[in-house]
Every structure is written in structure tokens, then in C-alpha cells.
Amino acid sequence: VQLQASGGGLVQAGGSLRLSCATFGLTFSRYVMGWFRQAPGKERDFVARIVWSSGSTYYADSVKGRFTISRDDAKNTVHLQMNSLKPEDTATYYCAAKTVWRDEYNYWGQGTQVTVSS
Fold first, then answer.
1. What integer pLDDT is reported at residue 91 of this predicted model?
2. CA distance 23 to 102
3. What confidence score (pLDDT) does residue 67 get?
4. Could you please report the per-residue DSSP string of 22-86?
5. Quick one: residue 98, left, alpha or beta (phi over 0 = left, psi -120 to 50 = alpha)?
6. What is the tens place of the pLDDT at every residue in 72-116?
7. Which of 16, 39, 67, 70 is most buried, by CB atoms within 10 Å?
8. Can you tell me the mean pLDDT for 14-32?
């Protein structure tokens, strides 16, 4: 299983970015896909997740209403649309996957940097 994150960059506050996580080797019906982020000197935090088979989503309170997680079945890709970005959203963003019956995410992609300037 491989996950490849992309789409990070530098954006002004109030702007938007769309992150993508290309997946290789997953049996999608059995997986939950998540996005996490880690700012310098801080712990990695949960951002959003989607159950691939049902499309059910869940968000951290800090991003609810601004971020949207979605899946593209044809491209085996998960997206994170980030709108109304704030400087506090600045972090390295990671995509991750876990089988639906696991508590912990067991597959991780490399990070993609998101920097929001004020």
C-alpha cells in the first residue's frame, strides 16, 4: 500500500488549496482515509476522515465548515478541499489509511506543506 500526497503550497489568508492523496494497493471498500496535520513544535492532529465505502465524513471542529474531504473512485484518490484558510492552518498535511476495524491508521503518505500567510 502506498499513499502519495500533493497539492500543498503558499496561500494568503482567506484563500483556498486542494490537497490530493493518490492511493496504490488499497481494497477501498475496507478502508477509512484520513487527513492529519502537524505544525512545527506541535503534535500531529486529526483533520478529517472519510469511510471509502459509504462516503461518511467526519471533521475536526477547527476545520468544520471550511474543509471538505471527498473521494474519487475512478482515480483512487482522496481530496481535501480547504477554503477560508487561516494562518493557524499552516502545517505539514499527511494522508493516512486504516482498515475499518482498526483504531489506528496503519498507512501514511509523505507530508505536503501548507503555509498560510496573514
1. 98
2. 18
3. 98
4. EEES--GGGEEEEEEEE-TTS--EEEEEEETTT--EEE-TTTTTTEEEEEETTTTEEEEEE-S--
5. beta
6. 989 999 999 999 999 999 999 999 999 988 999 999 999 999 999
7. 67
8. 91
